[in-house]
Amino acid sequence: LDVARILAKTADELLPTEIPQNVYDGLKANKALEVHVFGRRGPAQAKFSPMELRELDHSPNIEVIVDPEDIDYDEGSIATRRGNKQADMVAKTLENWAIRDIGDRPHKLFLHFFESPTEILGENGQVVGLRTERTALDGTGNVKGTGEYKDWDLGAVYRAVGYLSDELPKLPWDAESGTVPDQGGRVIEETGEHLQSTYVTGWIRRGPVGL
Prior knowledge:
Number of helices: 6
Helix content: 10-25%
Structural class: alpha/beta
CATH superfamily of the largest domain: FAD/NAD(P)-binding domain
CATH architecture of the largest domain: 3-Layer(bba) Sandwich
Order of helices and strands: HHEHEHHEEEEEEEH
CATH topology of the largest domain: FAD/NAD(P)-binding domain
Largest sheet: 3 strands, parallel
Shape: globular
Distance between the termini: 10 Å
């Protein structure tokens, strides 16, 4: 969702952040007006946080669109919502977006559920589309394929499954958590000694938590 949010925003929206100049220039040149996010399961299984969804909708340039046909729950999904306040809040937000009128914000961000990507379509060495298989809930909150396929016209595809930071050269590394060991933000060696003038922050310090 972070990738989709950055691609859907205008470059100027990111100016107040610490965005590097070369990244700003690249986003400024981005002409895409539509971004599509595909998930193989339903709204109750979405791994978004309520804060992430609010961040999307607060942008004056992003129109978030959810297909009403993608709002579906089975017994497992209902149990998830009852037992997880965050999952319930996300599902309610998506429900509201599915029934509202589509506005006129310039960039459209489509959130697709029950669509499992099966093939990236190419032509002359370039990405031209994505093929997905429609899925359906099986009663437990999991999904199964329906055998119904659809091709989507796309100019680029980004795969985002799971989170794992890469090890940085010459720094201590915790391979199990994918983080740099620290104490109060100061990088520490295996011996427990602080690495001089070296600090760590963000996901590579704490793992993939937060917006």
